C-alpha cells in the first residue's frame, strides 16, 4: 500500500467474493470504492511452472477478490452498496456470495503485504515488492513495486504475458507506448530492458499516483512520460511508437483499436493482453480491420494475449 498516512483503529471487516475472470475487474472496482485506501487483492488461480516457461491457471481454484472495509459508522451503508453492486454484476457474470471475516487492526499491514512475494517472471525479470529484500543475480532485471491500488503486481497472467513479450521482443533503444499502465510495471520493465522512452497512459487517477510513485522507486521518471486520460483521447494516432503494449480489457481494446494501431509505426508490433478467450475473436477482428496482422497468440486459462504487427 502507498500513502497510508493514518490507519483507522476500530478493526476491519474483510469482504471476499469469488468471481469468474470476466467479472473480476468489475468486482474489484466495486470493492475499491469502499475499501481502505481503495485497496483490493485479487488472487488469480495462477501457478508458475517450475521450468519458468509455460503459464498455467489452476482450474480447480476460483479467482478471489477481497478488500478490507474500515469498521466505522459507514460500514453498514457500504456493505449494503456492495451487496447491491454484486447483485447487478451477477446479472452479467458469475459472481459468488459475499463472505465476511472480522480482522483485528494489527492484521492490516500483513494482510496486504503477505500476498506480494519476490517473483521471478521469465528468465530475467524479478518483481520485488518494495518492503522485501532481494539480492539480484547477475542478469536480473529487478522491478521494485509498491502496487498500492493499481493493477500490475506481475502476478496476473495478463501482466506476465506482457513481461514475457518484453523479454523476447527487441526493446533496446526503442520508444514504447504502455496503454493502461496501472502500477507502471511494464513501463519500468521496458526501461530495464533498455528502451529509450515510454509513454505511460492511464485513465485512473488513483493508479496514476501509484504509477508515479513506482517510477520514482525505480528511478526511471526521466524516461517515462505519464499521461493521464483515456487512451483514445490522449494518444496520438500517428505516434510512431516502435512497440505498443496494451493490457486493458477487451471493450477498451476494441474501442481503442484505431488509435493503438495508428500509434504503432508501420511494421511495429502490438502486444494485446487483458483479453478473455470468449472475446478474442472480436478483439482480433477489430485490429485486423485497422490493418494489423496476427503473429502469435498465447493462452493461460481464460486469458489470451495477441502479438500483432501493424502493416508496413
Ligand atoms: C489490466 S490493468 C494493466 C496494468 C499494467 N499495465 C499491467 O500490465 O499489469 C489495465 C489498466 O488500464 C487502465 N485503463 C482502463 N481503461 C483505460 C483507458 N480507456 N485509457 C487508459 N487506461 C485505461 C485501468 O485503469 C488499469 O490500470
UniProtKB/TrEMBL annotation:
Which Pfam families has this protein been placed in?
PrmA
- Which keywords does this Swiss-Prot/TrEMBL entry list? Cytoplasm, Methyltransferase, Ribonucleoprotein, Ribosomal protein, S-adenosyl-L-methionine, Transferase
Main localization category:
cytoplasm
Gene Ontology molecular function terms on file: protein-lysine N-methyltransferase activity; rRNA (adenine-N6,N6-)-dimethyltransferase activity
One GO cellular-component annotation of the UniProt record comes to: ribosome
- E.C. number(s) listed in UniProt: 2.1.1.-
The family database entries (SUPFAM superfamilies) matched by this protein are listed as: S-adenosyl-L-methionine-dependent methyltransferases (SSF53335)
Catalytic activities: L-lysyl-[protein] + 3 S-adenosyl-L-methionine = N(6),N(6),N(6)-trimethyl-L-lysyl-[protein] + 3 S-adenosyl-L-homocysteine + 3 H(+)
Q: Where in the cell is it found?
A: Cytoplasm
The task this protein performs is described as:
Methylates ribosomal protein L11.
Q: Which HAMAP family does its entry note?
A: Methyltr_PrmA
Listed NCBIfam families: prmA
**PANTHER family with a match to the protein in the record:** ELECTRON TRANSFER FLAVOPROTEIN BETA SUBUNIT LYSINE METHYLTRANSFERASE
Q: What is this protein called?
A: Ribosomal protein L11 methyltransferase
Q: Which gene encodes it?
A: prmA
Amino acid at each position: 500500500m502507498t500513502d497510508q498516512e493514518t490507519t483507522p483503529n476500530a478493526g476491519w471487516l474483510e469482504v471476499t467474493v469469488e468471481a469468474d475472470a470476466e467479472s473480476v475487474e468489475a468486482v474489484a472496482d466495486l470493492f475499491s470504492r469502499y475499501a481502505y485506501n481503495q485497496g483490493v487483492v485479487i488472487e488469480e488461480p495462477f501457478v508458475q511452472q517450475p521450468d519458468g516457461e509455460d503459464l498455467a491457471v489452476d482450474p480447480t481454484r476460483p479467482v478471489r477478490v477481497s478488500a478490507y472495509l474500515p469498521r466505522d459508522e459507514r460500514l453498514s451503508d457500504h456493505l449494503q452498496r456492495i451487496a447491491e453492486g454484486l447483485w447487478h454484476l451477477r446479472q452479467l457474470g458469475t459472481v459468488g456470495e459475499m463472505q465476511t471475516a472480522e480482522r483485528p487492526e494489527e492484521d492490516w499491514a500483513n494482510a496486504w503485504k503477505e500476498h506480494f512475494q519476490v517473483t521471478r517472471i521469465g528468465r530475467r525479470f524479478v518483481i520485488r515488492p518494495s518492503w522485501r529484500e532481494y539480492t539480484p543475480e547477475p542478469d536480473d532485471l529487478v522491478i521494485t513495486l509498491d502496487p498500492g491500488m493499481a493493477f500490475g503486481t506481475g502476478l496476473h497472467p495478463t501482466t506476465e504475458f506482457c513481461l514475457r513479450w518484453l523479454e523476447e521482443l527487441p526493446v533496446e533503444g526503442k520508444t514504447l507506448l504502455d496503454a493502461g499502465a496501472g502500477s507502471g510495471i511494464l513501463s519500468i520493465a521496458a526501461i530495464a530492458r533498455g528502451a529509450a522512452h515510454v509513454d505511460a497512459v492511464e485513465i485512473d487517477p488513483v493508479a496514476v499516483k501509484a504509477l508515479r510513485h513506482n517510477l520514482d522507486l525505480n528511478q526511471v521518471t526521466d524516461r517515462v512520460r505519464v499521461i493521464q486520460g483515456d487512451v483514445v483521447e490522449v494518444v496520438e494516432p500517428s505516434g510512431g511508437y516502435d512497440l505498443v503494449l496494451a493490457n486493458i480489457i477487451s471493450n477498451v481494446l476494441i474501442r481503442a483499436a484505431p488509435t493503438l494501431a495508428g500509434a504503432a509505426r508501420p511494421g511495429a508490433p502490438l502486444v494485446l493482453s487483458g483479453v478473455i478467450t470468449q472475446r478474442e475473436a472480436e478483439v482480433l477482428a477489430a485490429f485486423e480491420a485497422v490493418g494489423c496482422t496476427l503473429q502469435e497468440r498465447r493462452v493461460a486459462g481464460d486469458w489470451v494475449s495477441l502479438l500483432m504487427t501493424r502493416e508496413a
